[in-house]
Amino acid sequence: MARSRGTSDPLGRRRFLGGLTSAAALLTLSACGVSESGDDEKEASSEERSLKTDKGVVKVPQHPKRVAASWNYDALMLLELGLVPVAVPDGTASRQLMPRDIFDKLEGVKTTGAPGTPNAQAVAAAKPDLIIDQFSWDKTKALRKIAPVVYYDWAHSGALWHEQLAKVAKAVNREERLNAERKKYEARLKELKSTYRKQIAGTKWAILSGGQNSQFQLGGPLLTVMRDLGLKIGAGIKGGADFQPKSYEQMDVLDDCTALIYPTQFDGKPPPPTQDLLDSKLWKSVPAVKDDKAFPIKHYTMCTYRFALGALDEIEDMLKKA
């Protein structure tokens, strides 16, 4: 897989979180094969193991059963690993930001306040045996009295989504489950590379989203999947998944691209800033847009292999038209 680094700006990742209806807040994954936490949570394992985290070695349950999530990404990664979290931040369940089956999984889960600022009493009421956090160690002091807090700093580490997911899988002792999902992704990549090798070789792509004050954002986490597939990236986009702000007047940076991708919510509507971009006269003058090669995508944000597989399915439809 591509090893390009992600953004080191904490806000760069947090803009995907909190149920935002912005260009970078499109979250989804599948509940295929995901079991409810209550199915096997009769008692949390009394056995412990030592786990290395970004804040030292922590004693955690050998097989955690009741895991709380401090951030939306934490919750979605747990679902990928077959665990429905027992507590999540406000706004985690959103019909606009995820498929209906995932919404149904999360709708009834206890909520604990805004992402990054969990209410300790609400967390304690969920009786977790483990708490996952990737962005706000300084806000978890009270939580550490409730259950072990496993912290992996995603905001500053530069880790890609699959690297961060692997850490969470190790924390909940579900690496075998993650390996199975990874193999599905790798098999799908191989299939698409073979079937669409001519289209992949003959096109140049960019991912972008709307911004504020007549700006748009080049780049985004979908770049990891695009590079894994072997798509050529244009518009001067460098390594990593960082956002590069551009003014509408700089729209000609897209002229070397034969295809463009922009985000939509799961209701099919672009987030308001992206809709503003699509409505602009300068956007409509871009060569790929005039050639009807600007494509919407629902699976825009990456944090699990289901996100990535969903993106590959959508990109396949684009390749058929590219």
Which key terms come to mind for this protein?
13 helices, 322 residues, three-stranded parallel β-sheet, six-stranded mixed β-sheet, alpha/beta, disordered N terminus
Question: How does this model look, in words?
Answer:
This protein has helices at residues 10-14, 72-80, 100-107, 120-125, 154-157, 161-171, 175-195, 197-201, 223-228, 272-279, 281-284, 287-290, 305-321; strands at 48-53, 56-61, 67-69, 87-88, 110-111, 130-133, 149-151, 204-210, 215-218, 232-233, 244-247, 259-263, 294-297. Strands 8, 9, 10, 11, 12 and 13 form a 6-stranded mixed β-sheet that branches. Strands 3-6-7 form a 3-stranded parallel β-sheet, covered by helices on one side. The protein has a two-stranded antiparallel ribbon with strand order 1-2. With 322 residues, it is of the alpha/beta class. It is 34% helix and 16% strand.
Q: Can you count the helices?
A: 13
Q: So what's the overall shape?
A: globular
- The tally of beta strands, per DSSP, is 13
- Kindly estimate the percentage of residues that lie in beta strands according to DSSP: 15-25%
Order of helices and strands: HEEEHEHEHEEHHHHEEHEEEHHHEH
Low-confidence stretches: 1-45
Mean pLDDT: 87
- Computed CA radius of gyration, to the nearest angstrom: 20 Å
Helical proportion?
Answer: 25-40%
**End-to-end Cα distance:** 23 Å
Largest sheet: 6 strands, mixed
Q: Based on helices, strands and strand pairing, what is the structural class?
A: alpha/beta
